[in-house]
Amino acid sequence: MQNNEKCFINMMSIAVIALIMLPVGIACVILGFGMGDSPCVMCWAERITMIAIALIGLFIVRYGPKRVYLASLIFMACWGMFNGFIHYSIDGTFGGYLDIGQGFGLEIFGAHTQFWVIVVDFFVLVFLALILFMSRNFGEIMHKSENKEFGKYIPLTPTSKFAHLAFIAIVALNCLQAFITSGPPPHLGSSTPPRMSLNPDKWFWEQDHWESPFDFRFDWDVEKPELVTSRSNDLVLQADAGAIKNIKFLTQSEKITLNLGKKPLTGLDLNKKTGTFAISANNNGFYVTDANFNALRYARHDKHFIMEMEDSVGATWYKDEVSIISYNKTFVSYLPTDIIDKDEQNSQWRHLIDGYDKFKLTDFGNKNRFFTLRAKQQYILDFDYDEATNKYLIASVPSKTRPSWSVAILDGDDKMIVEEYVPSIGVELKDGKTLDDYYITGVELDTDYAYLLSKNYSSILKLDLKAKQIVDAFAFTGVSNPRAITIRDNKFLILSREKDENIVFVFNMPVQETLPAKEQDEQIQSDMQNL
Hints:
Layout: H1 3-34, H2 41-63, H3 67-90, E1 107-108, E2 111-112, H4 113-134, H5 138-146, H6 158-182, E3 248-249, E4 252-257, E5 265-270, E6 277-281, E7 285-289, E8 295-301, E9 312-318, E10 321-326, E11 330-336, H7 342-349, E12 352-354, E13 359-360, E14 367-369, E15 380-386, E16 391-396, E17 407-411, E18 417-421, E19 424-425, E20 440-446, E21 449-454, E22 459-464, E23 469-475, E24 482-488, E25 491-498, E26 501-508, H8 511-514, H9 517-530
Parallel strand pairs: 3-23, 19-23
Antiparallel strand pairs: 1-2, 4-26, 5-6, 6-7, 7-8, 8-12, 9-10, 10-11, 11-13, 11-14, 15-16, 16-17, 17-18, 20-21, 21-22, 22-23, 24-25, 25-26
Helix pairs in contact: 1-2, 1-4, 1-6, 2-3, 2-6, 3-4
């Protein structure tokens, strides 16, 4: 074997020794047997990937560099980085719900162990590139290997012998640790392993992961919500089928068919100062209409520019601006104004596909996202803004991952979360029932109260914002696809897509909802006297 060939074999052997003894060896011997750290199921997948990379390195040392070995090594390093990114994002750092300094696993130089998986696998590629760069006549070495000119095996050097022995020893210790912490097949690693112990009474073996469906996104693969153009067979329109006992039925007073084109409409909000409406349409269109729902302005937002908005599901007035929101909690606000200047029109064209002469994005901060904690793995179907309190309100919809819903209050200026909670129950429920499956498609925020429109069970839940409690509930009939709610003249206006028509159903609010507080008390006393 020539000197340049021996140099290549030694460099590859040193790389194998570094990989198997440093990250794999330290994780097993020092962190595991020494400090009691137990790998989770994903940690084991990442560690086994490193062992596989080291094994491929030994194949190269023993049989010479071949295309299949180099390709396999690069593939496994990329696979290891992918697993590291998945692990790191699932544990929250990239997901955004961990504060600085928080994490899972032991901290090394300010970063937790799952982060170092990405670093190690990245440097596998770096060192492979350096070895190939520093190897003289590598092409000739590879040609000889492919043609089996080295014979059946490449003779071992002292360095390559040590690499083989180190690999055998560290893998044996990892096998022992795997048996202690995860058990023999069919047991699998744990997502939440306890500290490692040599006492068999403290060994906990699990098979839970066999029951999990295969999905590389895990809990982040959340099904899309029921949009205006889709119909879910899981939702029930009959209010009596819901959880609330003796729910109050509203009386319908009017039905208004909207003449705003054929697009399905998704959001509705009344500007109480001007009497005009903000209305959102499917595919990020939006209108400003007069009090009779005649269109005054129309525009369509470019869903792909800067922030991905997906389909718009709700509309609200943000001060004097029209805001629309997507089900992924991304929103944008535009000021209705006539734009004559061509340069300004071109500037607005960056944001709008249609109507860039009718609306203006006044602040890039008004193209933004709401960040939540409880609803991070849930979508929403509407939002509302209250100028008196300068607050937004959103309500999530249940999913298979999170089969309940919650409410979030967000600041009108910095758009940051103020509070988020699951409302307590102040209404009488049927035995064994909860409000978890109510499906909030519309929101109306009215300073001290919020009215939450649920398509499931055709209900409106009244939320006391100070008490954080559902204090009343109302039911309606005759509406097959309720999407949004607002209030005008003491009446609920419910927007629905009925076959190919956009219709606003008007329902009378109960007398206690329409009277001022003092008159409500007088009405209640009068009702009690009449009993």
